[in-house]
Amino acid sequence: MIELKNIKLNISNIDILNDVSFNILDNSVTCILDNKKSGKSSIFKILTGVYKNYYGEVICDGQDINDLKKCKIDILHETREKDADITVNEYLKFYASIYNVANEEEIDQYIENMLRKYSLISYKYTSINVLDNENYKLLELIRISINDPDVILFDNLFSSDNADFNERLLEYIKKLVNHKTLVFASRSLNYIEEIATHLVILETGSLVAYGKKEEVYKRAELSNKIEIEVLDKIQEAVDILKTNENIANITYTDKIISFSIVSNITYSEERNRVEANILKELVDKGIDVYSFKKQRVRFEQLFGRLGV
Amino acid sequence: MENILKIYKRLNNSYVKQRILLVYLIAQNTILSLAMLIFANVIISNGQINGELDYSQIRYFYTFAIIALFVLVLIFAPIFLSRTLNTLYKKNIIEHLLSAKVELSEIVYAVFLRGTSILIILLVSSFPIIVISFYFGGFGIIKMLKLVGIIISYAVFFSSICLYISTKSIDENASTIISYVIGIILTLLNIYYLNYFLNSRFLIVFYVLFNIIMSLILLSLSKKTSIFNA
């Protein structure tokens, strides 16, 4: 677990962070949100040891974060290295040496396999500057996988306009959920909302809200609602749903039933399983379900409800 | 400190850079050799006309060689060092390395090692040509060794000045210009006072120690700089 206690950061007489405290739990997916430049990247720079002149304490598994060798944190940066002199292969091998990955033959094979997996093999001997931003992010994912850290920080990971690429990226990230501690810094909840377990909301360097996603939603009076459209037998469908202990807040019109999943179901995989079971139960009991929609929470909505 | 050589290797890994260094070496030593030949030719021609060699002219011969060594340091140290750290910073390489648990001091030392080693390769490659001129100019072995000590320690000192300046400004051109200005002043002072150092054992020891201690201080200040970390 990483504990940030009363963090204050001032750069060139500008307060970047004001007394920010929150915890990053092991194997959680924490999303640090802000709607402007409110210090989320600075938190990452503190966590990775780039910024050292801050006030407060950052404790990682009981030890100060500046004892970096003990706390295995890596980051997928928003910015990219602009080095025309280094090829993709050299870049990965350089970082493998920095991470003290001992066996050179194994690492060569690993790099080869990963470049194939992420469809970057044709770039192996080209400069990293040739990669577009999307391929560079994939390269960074390979670099991080070589390091195999316990905690991975993602700075504006889903910033691409290419929705297909973001979905592909999300699929890679989902494989890390429950095995690694993931921390996202983002200006939007797009893509992350589905996997986030905890939210940290910042506004001009101050903490506005922190907690489990559902708790923050509750505070903002929002929840992840599900809407089902049925062709007939609406009362029967409502009765079936009412018997399910994972369902709360059922409302319905002549064709549409809205409800939410109870807030103690946090992890996306479990949530997906519960949702799939609800749908299966309805279909098995002869209800013709025309559509099954999850209402996504918009970040602006969340900020508005929190009074920011 | 284990990462210094890894970063040094990365900074040196480009074949393009190695080819450029080779071209520098060939160009520099060709120019030096040609200048020496022209000087020798002038002295011998004058000797043939006058019937005897004017040994006082040989003094200019090795004065030129000494100036050439200092000018080499003046030209190349700012190129290799005064724009390196701020360029790495602008290319986001420093931030990425720091977040990969590399210490800033390791980056500073690796950059210094790379710049200074190239500079010393350039200087040492010119020594055979220059030693010939000194030898025939009646410059004894001891004096030549003293001169080697002076030029190498000065190269290390000036390199650390250039590196330190590069940590004080994000603008590579500004740091390069400032380095050249300081370099010109130091080169003139060195050439002016060189005879004092060459003729006194105490002064030469002081000179070498001063350069090394100042280099260590500047390197230590470079890694505590404020433009790379808050």
Note down, in words, how this protein is organized.
- The complex is a heterodimer of chains A (308) and B (230).
- Chain A is α/β, with parallel strands linked by helices and 308 residues long.
- Chain A has helices at 40-47, 88-98, 104-117, 133-147, 163-174, 213-219, 234-242, 268-284, 299-305, and strands at residues 2-11, 14-24, 29-33, 55-60, 63-64, 73-76, 151-155, 181-186, 198-203, 206-212, 225-230, 247-252, 256-261, 289-294.
- In chain A, 32% of the residues lie in helices and 28% in strands.
- Chain A has 3 domains: 2-72 and 149-219, Rossmann fold (3-Layer(aba) Sandwich), CATH 3.40.50.300; 86-146; 225-305, Protein-tyrosine phosphatase receptor IA-2 ectodomain (Alpha-Beta Plaits, 2-Layer Sandwich).
- The longest helix of chain A has 17 residues, at 268-284.
- Chain B is mainly α and 230 residues long.
- Chain B is built from 9 helices and no strands.
- Chain B has helices at residues 4-12, 15-50, 55-81, 84-90, 93-99, 104-136, 141-166, 172-198, 201-223.
- In chain B, helix 6 runs antiparallel to helix 7.
- The two termini of chain B are 22 Å apart.
- The chains are: A alpha/beta (308), B mainly alpha (230).
- The A-B interface holds A 9, 11, 45, 48-54, 68-69, 74-75, 77, 79-83, 85-86, 90, 94-95, 97-99, 147 and B 3, 6, 9-10, 13-14, 16-17, 90-93, 95-102, 229-230.
